[in-house]
Amino acid sequence: MGQYFIFFLLALLAEIVGTISGFGSSILFVPLASIVLDFKVVLGITAVFHVFSNLSKIYLFQKGIDKQIALKLGIPAVLFVTLGAWLTNYIPQKEIELGMNFIIFSIALYMMSGHHKRIKESNTNLYLGGTLSGFFAGLIGTGGAIRGITLAAFNLEKDAFIATSAIIDMGVDVSRAGVYIASGYFQREHVILIPFLIIISIAGSYAGKRILNYIPEKTFQYIVLGVILLTSLIQGVRYFW
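Structure (tokenized):
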């Protein structure tokens, strides 16, 4: 039970940070949670957790949803998340974990460099961003950063950014959750976690929304990216150690 207590604390922290940063909680939560739980179990629980997490964000930021962007980015994301989730049955777990940390580290470094600001506002980039974010969400458990990089090109207001990202993520999580459950990543013994995950998702999203009113978003994003870099680096070292 001790490992689940740590798991819940990490989930709450990731939910608060994910709401404030706009990247989503999985980019921090998946590598951290996989320290205390089996990686594929983390994939299954994260997908179910995110369903409640995104419902909370959609409710709290519902006035900001951009429906056109949500459809153009969301449809390819939902289609390709199933492919990524299905591949987890065939690629060795350790290789997926290593790939996850490499990809997360690279994305965080890329965003800190500021090069993502050069991405143009276009339908092509929406479709490509949706495809890549969905595929990696299914394969390594997180695609929020790629979705965030794509959305950043459209200069959305904070509420619109978070709400639009959340509604896309909702479709992604429902799709991959089905594949993960069918693959046995989320089992009957994990059902007892659902009430706690609902409470954490609501509390974390609400706390993140309140904190967002007091902390400059750009400053906080750099702090978050630094934490993500450190987390993925530690996980990568653990793999080779």
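The longest helix spans residues 158-182. The CA atoms of residues 77 and 134 lie 4 Å apart.
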